[in-house]
Amino acid sequence: MDKSHDVKLMLPTNWDPALVSRISPFAPEYIYGSLPAEATLRPAFVLSEASEDDIALHIAEAARHAIRFIYVMNATCLGNKEYSENGRGELLQRLEWVAEVGAAGVVTANPFLMELVRRHFPSLELHISVLASVDDPRKATFFEDLGASVIHLDPQVNRDFRRLGAIRKSVKCRLSLVVNEGCLLSCPIRQYHSNMISHSGESIADRYYVDYCYYQCSLKKVGDAAEYLRSPWVRPEDLGVYEDLGIDLFKIAGREKMGEGPSSHTDWIVAAARAYRSRRGGDLARLLVGIQPPMSLMGDPPKTVQVRIDSRKLDGFLRFFRDDRCSLDCARCDYCGRWARRAVSVRGRTEACVGELAADLETIRVGSYRSGR
């Protein structure tokens, strides 16, 4: 049976005035975004510019298409400023503005902020960020008790079906999966990366910001094509498996700017929405975030590496995980490697890219650089 009309999507926005009308045929339930200066898990310079007035107009336009807006406040650390009078006041002022401009809710990883939302703005939906790392029933129950409307689960459990089933049974609130994250599976520096970006504003202003973590994970992925399959994305063709498990919502990541100008980013958002709405992936690599190597420390484009993941060749890939056979001991298992040799192609100057990434990491370690940001 064709279930495409039933897919519940949550899409990023780039504030392009043309975006809402272009995504409305896919009937997303939500769009999400923030002011560039907001402390979130995207450094300000990768986000499209938007003023408070721009956002208010965007929310109103979305509402005319029956699309709700969620404001992003998902920093994992605010440096304890939230407990100061000024910091708490700033948060409450921001939440008041969010409510006044017609946002449906907020997404956050900060439990204190969650309590402020529930106490002072009970009409707002409370979305629990993936950065709250909800990956078991105990955590899910904790956040539901705090008043969660939607829990966006930690992507690291996207293929742990036993855990997903247990979480679904433990709570009544809605559950969401991020479907197109290209990050390393079980990334050992994920929490550090989240905290680092949460505090990126100062380092960007003083021109010493550098995304050390992204260089590290890019080096690992470029050097081993199997990592592209280990990343915990969800194939558009497999959404039904998760719907049958009780997952309510599918979130597409990708607020960061892509290509040249808003229109190219809008094209990408539309393409990703179309793929998941139609349940046809095609080249999965074009849908994923976090798989392209970063620019060099000197600001030069990375060595050209073109990754293609053929969704059609991945029929049956998920069975291994549904059968609970994945131990996360990738050094002793070549399951993803075998499938990668079938479905993943990497073209371009791979060795040169690996060398450049390794050299940039060494420069970061030595300290002989100054960010051009």
Description:
- The chain is α/β, with parallel strands linked by helices and 373 residues long.
- The protein has a domain of 258 residues: Aldolase class I (TIM Barrel, Alpha-Beta Barrel), CATH 3.20.20.
- Helix content is 40%, strand content 12%.
- It contains 15 helices and 10 strands.
- The chain has an 8-stranded parallel barrel, surrounded by 5 helices.
- Strand 3, helix 3 and strand 4 form a beta-alpha-beta unit.
- Helix 5 packs parallel to helix 6 and helix 9 runs antiparallel to helix 15.
- The longest helix has 18 residues.
- The chain is globular and about 50 Å long.
- The model has no long low-confidence stretch (mean pLDDT 91).
Query: Which sequence of strands runs across the widest sheet?
Result: 1-2-3-4-5-6-7-8
Give the CA-CA distance, first to last residue. 50 Å
* Share in β-strands: 5-15%
Radius of gyration: 20 Å
Descriptive tags:
TIM Barrel; alpha/beta; two-stranded antiparallel ribbon
What's the short version?
By secondary structure, the protein is of the alpha/beta class. It has 15 helices and ten strands.
Topology:
Blueprint: E1 9-12, H1 19-23, E2 30-33, H2 52-64, E3 68-73, H3 85-100, E4 105-108, H4 111-120, E5 125-128, H5 137-145, E6 150-152, H6 161-170, E7 174-178, H7 190-198, H8 200-205, H9 212-222, H10 226-230, H11 239-245, E8 249-251, H12 261-278, E9 305-309, H13 319-322, H14 335-343, E10 344-348, H15 350-366
